[in-house]
Amino acid sequence: MTNAALDTDLRDLYQDLILDHGKHPRNFRIAKNANHEALGHNPLCGDRLMLYVTVDDDNVVQDVAFQGSGCAISMASASMMTDMLKGKTLAEVGALFDYMHGACTGETVTPAGLAEDDVDRIKALAGVRHYPMRVKCATLAWHTLQAALKNEKKVSTE
Questions:
Q1: What pLDDT, on the 0 to 100 scale, is given for residue 149?
Q2: What confidence tens digit (pLDDT) does each residue in 43-85 have?
Q3: Within a 10 A sphere around the Cβ of 29, how many other Cβ atoms?
């Protein structure tokens, strides 16, 4: 298989992953025992989501969920993020945020210490770097996560 064929296969796989999460978001609910939450808003395209995070005394994410509405990319990103974060320490969450943000904005960030599966899922969203208007859609949930963990109640991509 040529590199071009492999790239096309990966793009198709990533597109299918984003469409699946966008149409059937995981963890789309209110987390009843959340001890961190924030509202994220992307005024440019109208994406809006409420994120709920439960962190235990050992700084491990026990639960994370969201509700809201938006484009397929923002909903897929939130869904994929909630899947990735459960069971992660806050240090691991920070590393995932840094990698996600860098991947989507075109920065070179080494995924040192990150699970291969998490890196692959982030790569699925990283294609938005070629469409600057979509970067805010893909990173909204992640910025909302940062706000929630800092006990900030709202964040905007504006």
A1: 97
A2: 988 999 999 999 999 999 999 999 999 998 999 999 999 999 9
A3: 13
**Cα–Cα dist 53/61, whole Å:** 7
The topology (CATH level 3) of 3-156 is: Sufe protein. Chain: A (3.90.1010)
Q: Which amino acid is at 95?
A: A
CA dihedral 149, 85, 26, 52 (to 10 degrees): -20
pTM for the model: 0.88
Residue 157, SS3 per DSSP = coil
Contact 88, 80 (CB under 8 A): no
Q: Beta partners for 42?
A: 47
- Is residue 3's pLDDT more than 70? no
How far apart are the two ends of the chain, measured CA to CA in Å? 43
Nearest to 68 by CA among 101, 46, 44: 46
Cβ atoms of 23 and 72 closer than 8 Å = yes
For residue 37, the cross-strand partners are 52
SS3 content of the chain, % helix, strand, coil (to 5): 55, 20, 25
